[in-house]
Write a structure and sequence with these properties.
single chain; alpha+beta; 5 strands; SwrD-like; Flagellar protein FlbD
């Protein structure tokens, strides 16, 4: 999940796998695959950075777990 901020300064978490598009015109609008939209204070570049960081954490965690499950892996 990534945490974003609505224009009223309330924070919410969204699953980045459900984001269909991010627009900046001029406010940043997140559109989910189900059509739900959210206007956020973060810039489009910041949202993309958050999504990239989330995906990197998922891949890093998967690699650690994969090594932990491999009994032949040297430690």
């Amino acid at each position: 999940m990534i945490v974003l901020t609505r224009l009223n300064h309330s924070r919410f978490a969204v699953n980045p796998d459900l984001i269909e598009r991010v627009q900046a015109a001029p406010d940043t609008t997140i559109t989910l695959v189900d059509g739900a939209t959210f206007v956020v204070t973060e810039s489009m570049n910041k949202v993309i950075e958050e999504i990239t960081d989330f995906r990197a954490r998922v891949l890093a965690t998967a690699a650690v777990l994969s090594r932990a499950d491999d009994p032949q892996e040297e430690r």
